[in-house]
Specification:
By secondary structure, the protein is an alpha/beta fold. The chain folds into three domains: about 210 residues, 3-Layer(aba) Sandwich (Rossmann fold), CATH 3.40.50; about 190 residues, Rossmann fold; about 110 residues, GMP Synthetase, Chain A, domain 3 (2-Layer Sandwich), CATH 3.30.300. About 35% of the residues lie in helices and about 20% in strands. It is built from 17 helices and 27 strands. It is globular, with a radius of gyration of 24 Å.
């Protein structure tokens, strides 16, 4: 049944009333808190914030790694009508301070792990600090080395506030309205300079509800969360959706490396997961592809589509077991997925689905369930959104994706000029992405407008498509294509494990490695240029010695290299 009120408070209160004893949030190695306990904790934080002078419309920042308390604080801030400002933990300390200044945050919840990133020496007004780990206020002068002692001293603070909250249920005043601002989200961006996206309660809850029209979730689903909650992709789809339906979300206490992920998946046996292309591409490149081409016989078999598909199916079953064996939805979003990796997932019958969206659209614009996924498409436009392709190329039908609907942001915080530039006169949001929309409503993404390279005859060359083709080469981990002095140039970061096993060379091999790489770059260039249009051929390929610097959602920071 569609919600009567599209606010985060109404949403979570309804779930608590319906699924009170079901598990809600947990660390992988911990015990889940129930929805009833979630509700009590939300009341505790609301009371604490009110005692410290936080009122409706005040901004409260949230800086911490994924944990149940992150979700508790998120709902507490938004339920009392204040505005949450989630901050990506990978931001530089200068960016964090800039966000605190720009947002005018009156308080900040920060985890012990990231406490040293919060500095107020150059802020006009010191925000009140609360420790995310135990949901308690912190003296602004407390140094990092005294935090452990402080954590011990305040172990009963939570109970004290919770008991007071229980006594004061229903006395918290202002109800948030659908059009009230719920969150200001500062995007990581691949071009630097974070900007604050203003999203209302209706934006977020509506996107949550509409996404559920294309992919079902219920109270028995278990999600393993591996992407940062401060990003709208994980927050809306990996957090708000399960919270609406009474499902349970589990968090890791370490980065999601294979050594950490595999035992976690075996323990939780997730039914749903969200990821970005880079993570599944690394799994394919480092673990699956080497096994599929381990010897000359398998390499020959792999060249023929029928036997390749058979090998993919066998590898897909192994991958499913690695993921715990109960996965029914594996969502991929945030960037273009490599062609060969999607081919593997498609052939294997793996339950993957690709979605497309932006922070500015809360985020989902297009997506689908694994049952109706279409190869290389990002799914269909979700209900209630108007999407059009502006100024399409007469030949290719590719143009800018523009969107209008209830999930589109109010604008950029304190930036009327940028907000005005981002919308057309008739109210459509300019995504800055190029795409193609079919008659059956499937959306295909070609890349960012700013990354398009114009060929000598005026042809559009999509950098992301060239990168996807380069990334198919077995020794390549990731790549970046850009224009330099009128030529197309590619930077490539190679898979050192494959180079060592297959070609018996290492980066520290001195002259031998340099001679090999000189030849290898020529071979890669020939491979690429024989597989693309003549006007899209690459002039030069450069070896990238270190991994590319990335945003918290694992997109390459292009502005650092172009």
């Amino acid at each position: 049944m569609e919600p009567k009120t599209f606010t985060l408070k109404a949403m979570i209160q309804n779930t608590i009333a319906t699924f009170g004893e079901r598990p809600a949030l947990s660390m992988v190695e911990g015990e889940p808190i129930s929805y009833s306990q979630l509700g009590e904790s939300i009341d505790h934080v609301i009371l604490m914030l009110r005692e410290y002078g936080i009122r409706k419309g005040d901004r409260v920042a949230l800086l911490g790694q994924n944990m149940p308390n992150w979700g508790i604080v998120y709902f507490a801030i938004t339920s009392m009508g204040a505005i949450v400002v989630p901050i990506l933990v990978d931001f530089h300390v200068n960016e964090i301070r800039q966000i605190l200044r720009h947002s005018g945050s009156k308080a900040i919840f920060v985890s012990n792990t990231h406490y040293d990133k919060v500095g107020y020496s150059d802020l006009e007004q010191d925000p009140q600090i609360f420790l995310l780990d135990n949901l308690s206020p912190v003296d602004a002068n407390l140094t990092k080395d005294k935090l452990a002692e402080y954590l011990q001293d305040t172990k009963n603070v939570f109970l004290r506030f919770r008991n007071k909250a229980m006594e004061a249920v229903g006395l918290f005043g202002t109800e948030p309205e659908e059009e009230d601002v719920a969150a200001i989200i500062y995007t990581s961006g691949t071009a630097g300079n974070p900007k604050g996206v203003v999203l209302t309660h209706k934006n977020l809850v509506k996107d949550t509800w509409l996404t559920l029209q294309i992919q079902k979730v219920d109270q028995y689903d278990r999600l393993l969360s591996i992407l940062p909650l401060s990003h709208t992709y994980e927050c809306t789809i990996g957090f708000l959706i399960p919270m609406l339906k009474g499902a349970c979300v589990y968090y890791l206490d370490k980065p999601p490396t294979a050594r950490i992920l595999v035992p976690a998946m075996q323990k939780i046996r997730p039914t749903m997961m969200l990821t970005v292309p880079l993570i599944i591409e690394k799994i394919y490149k480092l673990q699956i592809y080497p096994q599929l081409t381990a010897n000359p016989v398998m390499r020959q078999l792999y060249k023929f589509p029928p036997t390749r598909k058979m090998l993919h199916k066998v590898a897909g079953k192994k991958l499913m077991k690695t993921f715990g064996g109960e996965l029914h939805f594996f969502g991929i979003g945030g960037a273009l997925l490599a062609h060969d990796v999607e081919l593997f997932l498609n052939d294997a019958g793996f339950p993957y689905a690709i979605g497309y969206g932006l922070t500015e659209t809360s985020p989902l614009i297009a997506g689908c369930s694994p049952a109706v996924v279409k190869f290389r498409a990002t799914g269909v436009i979700i209900p209630e959104l108007e999407v059009r392709i502006a100024d399409p190329d007469p030949k290719t039908k590719v143009g800018e994706i523009q969107v209008k609907g209830p999930t589109v942001m109010k604008g950029y915080y304190k930036d009327k000029e940028l907000t005005a530039q981002s919308f057309t006169k008739d109210g459509f949001f300019r995504t800055g992405d190029l795409g193609l929309l079919t008659k059956k409503n499937y959306l295909y993404i070609k890349g960012r407008i700013k990354n398009v390279i114009i060929g000598p005859n005026g042809d559009n060359i999509y950098a992301e498509e060239l990168e996807a083709k380069i990334n198919e080469y077995d020794t390549v981990l990731e790549s970046l294509v850009y224009e330099s002095d009128g030529n197309i140039v590619a930077r490539v970061f190679f898979n050192q494990e494959v180079l060592e096993k297959k070609h018996h060379v290492t980066m520290f091999g001195g002259v031998q490695y340099e001679k090999f790489m000189e030849k290898h770059l020529i071979e890669l260039k020939e491979f690429l240029n024989s597989n693309v249009a003549s006007f899209a051929r690459v002039h030069k390929i450069i070896e990238q010695k270190e991994p590319f610097e990335k945003t918290p959602t694992q997109k390459i920071k292009r502005f650092l290299y172009q």
